[in-house]
Amino acid sequence: NAGVTQTPKFRILKIGQSMTLQCAQDMNHNYMYWYRQDPGMGLKLIYYSVGAGITDKGEVPNGYNVSRSTTEDFPLRLELAAPSQTSVYFCASSYSQNTEAFFGQGTRLTVV
Amino acid sequence: EDQVTQSPEALRLQEGESSSLNCSYTVSGLRGLFWYRQDPGKGPEFLFTLYSAGEEKEKERLKATLTKKESFLHITAPKPEDSATYLCAVQATGGGETSGSRLTFGEGTQLTVNP
Asked: What is the 3-state secondary structure (H, E, C) of A9-35?
């Protein structure tokens, strides 16, 4: 099992550009999450999903969109990138709402 | 609003010098408290889940404990390979099945163990 796979690992965007961060898991987990981590800060929840076709906002959803068409994939879309979106993005998945989350290796995004 | 505060922000230890990391939390109802380890440039790696006050869990040199207001991560005779950032997160009850999966993280304690 590969676990949670995120692509790309690094990306530089110009202000106003758009991109999609990819996340895939092969553990057949229903729950998937997107977090961002700013330097010296804890992880903040952006969006999460409890199953295919079901998504909901987290703590910091503005400027982002998600979709969940399959159990395996949970892409995060950035529209009109802004410098405030410079961060490290982590995707995670869990079997249920009570069990531990498994994290990917992260995508380091810089918006200039 | 759920809150998690970790202390200290950074801790330097000599190899073999035992210590504890603190995680204080405020939550309407605790479903679970999670400890993760994060190495530089990597995603968090799960260590423990604690569900109720008085619960303890151990793994090698690490021991996590839980009270109604805080959790401690005790590190006994640490080694340089224990150097990492340790993250604490809480999951609250209530809000239905879709809300119960949300974690609130603290800012972490950066641990350095010198040989």
From this structure: CEEEECCCCCEEEEEEECCCCCEEEEE
What DSSP character marks residue A16?
A: T
Count of CB pairs separated by less than 8 Å, A with B: 65
pLDDT (tens digit per residue) in B75-115: 999 999 999 999 999 988 865 555 556 789 999 999 999 99
Selected for mutation to probe chain A from B103, B105, B107, B110 (highest A CB count within 10 Å) is B103
Rg (CA), chain A: 13
Do A67 and A79 touch, CB atoms closer than 8 A?
A: no
- Inter-chain residue contact B44 with A94, CB threshold 8 Å: no
Residues of chain B positioned with their CB less than 8 A from the CB of A99 = 49
Measured from the Cβ of residue B27, the count of other Cβ atoms closer than 10 Å reads 18
Helices (H) and strands (E) in chain A, counts: 0, 11
The answer to whether A41 faces chain B, any CB pair under 8 Å, is yes
CB-based contact A58 B102, cutoff 8 Å: yes
Looking at every residue in chain A, the average pLDDT score rounds to 94
Using alpha carbons only, what angle is made at residue A23 by residues B109 and A87, rounded to the nearest 5 degrees?
45
B112: its two tokens: 């350095």
